[in-house]
């Protein structure tokens, strides 16, 4: 008697509405996939997702693919040694993927099932190390607009609700505390034009996030993002009152990712030994990790990246190199510190909760923002930003220099676009870029120069 998988192949081949699609699995080897008419075939977005997955490090494990379609990505993962469980709500896709898996001889490592986020009774396998989803990203059809068949809509169209399809997955992961603490989620989004599903929803929820790939296709921009829980789910150390979280962090065991928070810091430090003044209720903390990243980039550029990521997540601005600003007033600051005594790098972050006068100068607080943020909300966003800066997941590579410079410059240019003026030695200058070591490129009437000394510059808002 023929096996179930062989019957799937026969059933699909018997249909007149199928085609054979050649798919390059990323190892210069092409495979033929049978794709029914109602199933999404491998296209350029499939290639982009596979290219992003190729960047992952740390060996193989158990993978889950949501929306397998013809099975192209599941097959490519299995060929690299992953144990794969693939899911799709389209029964024709399930049949096609099963048949394609069987024809290539991967049934021992790849299992395809019907189901997915939003389906009654569906849940994620508890033992997965990696979740992959080429997210349906077409905008839902409006009233009286043409629409696809229900099966096709489920596979190609995003939900017409906040967070879209990816919100289903994020909600499942938030509720499911039994998932592995080092789980990595890789999702392909359409970011231009915007779809209901967005990487920003994951970012604002405190996930570590790095973009693995981006490509412009005609009038669309597709991006592949990796998400993970900072600290592998380990909660930060919280101290009611302390002199300095930076000093407390020095006393910790040297494990990968540690955070010390306090609601009352008495003797915080700022840049070059200055005093960082905080009040009860402000967020003050220190993040400690290994300083491997300093082998590839300078401390100056790292500080700019950190400022850029934190300001982006809190929707504030960064005044180079370490002041965080909101509405033209200082709301917080960043201090980067390392020493030859250990292999650690420590990042101190302070964010004001309330606006007030500090030495006669008005400063801002997160309560001034239009969005309502709790202490925990602010912590999660900063935690995710720093996890992203340090790529604090063993499978995720460090950001490349081009992206680091892009993040840093975007943050600086945002401040300048809000009316910031810059003076150097009493003369007005224009900031035109940032160098690989983190120094600013400055243009004046007579020349172009660079500086990494904050004291030489005066910013006015």
For this entry, give a set of tags.
Rossmann fold, 461 residues, seven-stranded mixed beta sheet, BirA Bifunctional Protein, domain 2, 2 domains, disordered N terminus, alpha+beta
Provide an overview of this structure:
The protein has 461 residues and is an alpha+beta fold. The chain folds into two domains: 4-228, Rossmann fold (3-Layer(aba) Sandwich), CATH 3.40.50; 236-402, 2-Layer Sandwich (BirA Bifunctional Protein, domain 2), CATH 3.30.930.10. The protein is 26% helix and 30% strand. It has eleven helices and 25 strands. The protein has helices at residues 4-14, 44-53, 72-79, 91-104, 150-156, 164-175, 199-204, 245-250, 299-314, 375-389, 401-417, and strands spanning 18-24, 30-36, 62-66, 83-88, 110-114, 130-134, 184-192, 208-217, 220-228, 237-239, 257-262, 268-269, 275-276, 283-290, 317-319, 323-326, 329-338, 344-351, 356-358, 361-363, 421-424, 427-434, 440-443, 448-451, 457-460. Strands 5-4-3-6-7-9-8 form a seven-stranded mixed sheet. A seven-stranded mixed sheet has the order 10-11-14-18-17-16-15. Helix 1 (4-14) packs across helix 4. Mean pLDDT is 84; it is low at 1-16.
Summarize this, please?
With 461 residues, the chain is an alpha+beta fold.
Can you tell me the CATH superfamily of the largest domain? Vaccinia Virus protein VP39
**Structure classification:** alpha+beta
Shape type: elongated
What's the rounded overall pLDDT mean? 84
Most strands sheet = 7 strands, mixed
The poorly predicted ranges are 1-16
Strand content: 25-35%
Helix content: 25-40%
Whole-Å distance between the termini?
78 Å
Q: Any idea what the CATH architecture of the largest domain is? A: 3-Layer(aba) Sandwich
Which CATH class of the largest domain applies here?
A: Alpha Beta
**Total strands:** 25
The CATH topology name of the largest domain reads Rossmann fold
Rg from Cα: 25 Å
Strands of the biggest beta sheet: in what spatial order?
A: 5-4-3-6-7-9-8
Count of alpha and pi helical runs:
11
